Amino acid sequence: MNNHSFTALVMVIAATWLVPVPIFGQAKSQTKPDTAPPWTLPRTADGQPDLEGYWTTQTFTPLQRPEHLSGQEFYTEEETAELQSQLTAEGVDPLARGAINLEDAGERAQSLYQTNRPTYVHYDNEIWLRTRVPKGLSSQRTSLITDPPNGRIPPLTQGAEQRAAVLRDLRQERRDQRVAGHDGGAAFDGYEVRPLSERCVEWPHNGPPMLPPAYNDVHQIYQTPDYVVVHTELNNNLPRIIPLDGRPHISDNIRLFPGDSRGHWEGETLVVETKNFTDKTRFQGSSESLHVVERFTRVDADTIRYEFTVDDPTSWTSPWSAEIPMVKTDGPLYEYACHEGNYDVPHILSIYRNLEKQAAGNGSR
User: Fold this and answer.
1) CB contact at 8 A, 262 and 242
2) pLDDT tens digits, residue range 306-343?
3) What distance, in Å, lies between the first and last C-alpha atoms of the chain?
4) Using CB atoms within 10 A of its CB, is residue 99 exposed (0-12), middle (13-18) or buried (19+)?
5) What's the pTM value of the predicted model, to 2 decimals?
6) What Å distances lie between residue 269 and 26, 190, 265, CA to CA?
């Protein structure tokens, strides 16, 4: 390649990266007519909307509306533009998702960057967590929750509060049994109080419903006339295989971490109903009565509108719903082999047993 060709290539790449980042639901500019041909919904060989490909749910938009935005369902266009510029700036830590909850703009800006820069660079943040389109807001909404109108998860029922209290009491019992001289270690003295995600058994975002994870937030969708498969990258379960042939759900006696999914088409929207969860899933405090309805609608070449409604009368005082854009991204998916060499719990417990022996005065190591 000669120098002129190389220079031209660099200019093209630079121009591509300077294109403003679109956000889902943002109105197109009216200052210049749109001369692009109208978008046509792609379809599979059997005539259904084509959802196949790699999609990301990455977003800084929080699930629940921040307290300081109470009563504000949408950001203004000015607020959206300012936040989008701040969140997608060079060097922003894609894991700094809590920054959006800060009311003070200066504190928010500071919290978006790794505090240990420039002496140390987190490799995952610089290499694996970067996507072609920078992580920003999903839309002008101040929360992913669309219903109830306050953008917050409804209060827990009395039964759910009691379930949560059992776990809190167990943890408190552990604290009360602490060995003198090792304050704070009791949280690690038994497997009963360790979360499932620590053992790579179940992740809160896995779904259904699917919530944006902190990283590796890519989903691959496959389609056949009889099945849709949703494979989430950060997932220790098998890909979710969703039958479309009208078969009934499995027996209520069978309970699964991801539940049992069945799908069907309603016009241009894939609707997926999931039940038969185990009470160990505990999605936002749910029980085995959790019932999830998801809706996947291809709205343009680069976006699937993903919506879900969750209901569990034993856990929340009312159902609630959220909307998360799934944006076209690049593959491939990488295996998240969390269980390979995963010895955290045995190590944690063996260390604590050792501390107990030392505290008992026998000096064991």
Assistant:
1) yes
2) 999 999 999 999 999 999 999 999 988 887 777 655 66
3) 64
4) buried
5) 0.80
6) 21, 46, 6
